[in-house]
Specification:
Family: Belongs to the aspartate-semialdehyde dehydrogenase family.
Strand content: 15-25%
CATH topology of the largest domain: Dihydrodipicolinate Reductase, domain 2
Structural class: alpha/beta
Number of helices: 12
Number of domains: 2
Distance between the termini: 15 Å
Radius of gyration: 20 Å
Largest sheet: 6 strands, parallel
InterPro entries: ASADH-related (IPR051823), Asp_semi-ald_DH_pep-lack (IPR005676), NAD(P)-bd_dom_sf (IPR036291), Semialdehyde_DH_NAD-bd (IPR000534), Semialdhyde_DH_dimer_dom (IPR012280)
Protein name: Aspartate-semialdehyde dehydrogenase
Keywords: NADP, Oxidoreductase
CATH superfamily of the largest domain: Dihydrodipicolinate Reductase, domain 2
Shape: globular
GO molecular function: aspartate-semialdehyde dehydrogenase activity; NAD binding; NADP binding; protein dimerization activity
Length: about 375
């Protein structure tokens, strides 16, 4: 019998759910023993349910092909079979919050890719290299929910991963004003070019809700756990303003960012801060952690999606074109893989951190 933790993937048939099952194939700590989706798909084998709609560039893992999809609404039944779940369900926010909280109250930790609980004050929203200490708020969440082991943790929006790590590396220089425009891949909407042919050769200057997430979520990540409020209190700086644009790219979100600093760093100080930035995942040697979290690229035409999106198996962030600006102090271009670091991979790394910290254990 395997000593790996038993994992359920809720919302397993969508693009992020598919990424979860591929990333977890042969994972050293976790084993997918259950897949769930809507009642419409329940009862089918996973292989049959994704037939004709498999979006990954690798085959369906053998280990999950014959798993029979369960109805994600059958919380107690699913909770009895797994140690924790990854959530990639596609419901409206109210229903997502209700379902994820039901799993937590069934004493089953939830590591979610969804946005529904990102602004729940006692739910940690974690980029493991940046704010691993935010998991301290889980004790207060459990107190509110009345649970002993159940809780919810979330990963942030994929759009912020291409610039927030750089700004985190530069916090010592006190950035106080940021302008960022993100150029976002279609897989961020769960689409391929086959699904969305009108995106070929096209740019859409609007992604619903994305700019608010891009401006607010880094502030929670840079906030702190307040023991009196029993919550994470966001910081109020830097001020961030964004535009989010959909571009005809399959994987990879690119950001063009401008920054003002209270302090006056040199270019070499900024580059050194990027290249030397690491965190708990690297210190702990977590299975999905990139050895180099951020790479700095000196070529004028890098980073590029076609050449750099898979840096560190998609879990690393690439920064380039750092140069002085006439209006702001510095400007740069960032690139991150939106479904690896930005979605399922970031959630897997978060779960690895939570296991290492003792929050996720075998039942």
């Amino acid at each position: 019998m395997s000593d790996k933790l038993r994992v359920g993937v809720i919302g397993a048939t969508g693009m992020v759910g598919q990424r979860f099952v591929t990333l977890l194939d042969n994972h050293p700590w976790f084993e997918v023993v259950l897949v769930a989706a809507s009642a419409h798909s329940a009862g089918k084998t996973y292989e049959a349910a994704v037939d004709g709609r498999w979006k990954m560039d690798v085959p369906v893992p053998e280990a999950v092909k014959q798993l029979v999809l369960q109805d994600a609404a059958n919380v107690d039944d699913i909770a009895s079979q797994v140690d924790f779940v990854f959530s990639a369900i596609s419901l409206d926010k109210a229903d997502t919050r209700k379902l994820e909280e039901a799993y937590a109250k069934a004493e089953t930790p939830v590591v979610s890719n969804n946005s529904a609980h990102r602004w729940t004050a006692d739910v940690p929203m974690v980029i493991p290299e940046i704010n691993p200490e935010h998991t301290d708020v889980i004790k207060y969440q459990r107190e509110r929910l009345g649970t002993k082991r159940g809780f919810i943790a979330v990963k942030p929006n994929c759009s912020i991963q291409s610039y927030t790590p750089a700004l985190s590396a530069w916090r010592q220089f006190e950035p106080y004003e940021v302008v960022a425009t993100t150029y976002q891949a279609i897989s961020g909407a769960g689409k391929t070019f086959k699904d969305w042919p009108e995106m070929v050769g096209n740019v859409i200057p609007f992604i619903s809700g994305e700019e608010e997430k891009s401006e607010r979520e880094p502030l929670k990540i840079w906030g702190h756990v307040d023991d009196e409020q029993k919550a994470i209190v966001p910081t109020d700086n830097p001020v961030i303003t964004t535009q989010c644009i959909r571009v005809p790219v399959l994987y990879g979100h690119t950001a063009a960012a401008f920054v003002k600093f209270h302090k006056n760093p040199t270019k070499q100080e900024l580059i050194d801060a990027l290249e030397n930035y690491s965190g708990e995942p690297q210190r702990l040697g977590l299975p999905s952690a990139p050895k180099q979290f951020i790479q700095y690229m000196t070529e004028d035409d890098r980073p590029q999606v076609t050449q750099d999106v898979n840096f560190e198996n998609g879990m690393g962030v690439s920064i380039g074109r750092l140069r002085e600006d006439k209006v702001y102090d510095w400007k740069f271009v960032g690139l991150s893989h939106n479904t690896a670091r930005g979605a399922a991979g970031g959630a897997v790394l978060c779960a690895e951190l939570l296991k290492a910290q003792g929050y996720i254990t075998a039942k």
